[in-house]
Amino acid sequence: xxxxxxxxxxxxxxxxxxxxxxxxxxxxxxxxxxxxxxxxxxxxxxxxxxxxxxxxxxxxxxxxxxxxxxxxxxxxxxxxxxxxxxxxxxxxxxxxxxxxxxxxxxxxxxxxxxxxxxxxxxxxxxxxxxxxxxxxxxxxxxxxxxxxxxxxxxxxxxxxxxxxxxxxxxxxxxxxxxxxxxxxxxxxxxxxxxxxxxxxxxxxxxxxxxxxxxxxxxxxxxxxxxxxxxxxxxxxxxxxxxxxxxxxxxxxxxxxxxxxxxxxxxxxxxxxxxxxxxxxxxxxxxxxxxxxxxxxxxxxxxxxxxxxxxxxxxxxxxxxxxxxxxxxxxxxxxxxxxxxxxxxxxxxxxxxxxxxxxxxxxxxxxxxxxxxxxxxxxxxxxxxxxxxxxxxxxxxxxxxxxxxxx
Length: 406
Fold this sequence. Notes:
Blueprint: H1 54-57, H2 76-84, H3 87-95, H4 97-106, H5 112-122, H6 125-137, H7 146-151, H8 154-167, E1 172-173, E2 176-177, H9 192-195, H10 201-218, H11 222-239, H12 248-259, H13 266-277, H14 286-298, H15 302-316, H16 322-330, H17 348-367, H18 372-383, H19 390-399
């Protein structure tokens, strides 16, 4: 998984329904007085079939309460620096990235003032812990100076030095990833068989989670969403994107899906690839497939989710096996990428991971999570190899494998 750079085009996603495996807060997130009804946030998704379980299932699962830890005394920045040098935490992160992330979500030593501030921002204690995790992991390795970036033009500078560091979650500690590898992740989301141990699936999932979090926050306020969409419209015009819709949801799809279309090209190249993908009326129905995949994931309908995930992967030629990596590399005329480029980090597994990460982030902001332990249970259910939904997710991915055309 390489670095991720970040409407069916009718508006933000109406995902205020339980995500299977995610425990819900006893009360809804504090809503803005401008919060529109859910049906006004529609993306033309079909009504979900079957029970909506994702927020309720994990509430009944047995959970382990983290060992009591004394509250850290200091600022958020000091706490992050403390974690960076915590030998037990760093050792676990190196061997069990998912497990270390889960430990972070349920730690009891977060400074009280920090805990309160994030809870207020998110509207729930567990949602606040997600925001804290996003801030802790935010960033991307770069050897390019600000001056070097400026010499390549204002759009490159905006992309590489402003947007990418704020929207990505690949911060390094002492030259290495915070949460490297994918050995204990749900198998359907592992792409180390394609790209080796350098993969960074926790970071990738958090990029999609942040996008879902952003859309969930915008769903709380019609005024904020409209203002954000005006900003997206200006950005599209400045960058010359002709087919990305002027709203936050399609811009989000572009960032997530565009990243899996190119192994290089940076933020702008990835967005341009998506712009090309949806040209001429979105002939591959990418927007619809994305929206329906997220909707199905929320309903716990993993088979249906992977039907749509496969459709996206096939359209963008995202490989699912080492053989398909080699197949893409040998192509003289790939659909979007440069010929004979390895597309390092692109994978069908990343598309699946992004769908589930986005869905969880959105739901956490619109439904709330009652505690840090509930946040841990939610993540564990979906993304841990021992999670409550891992077997069903793996079965769905095997039932609907992505096979690229020669």
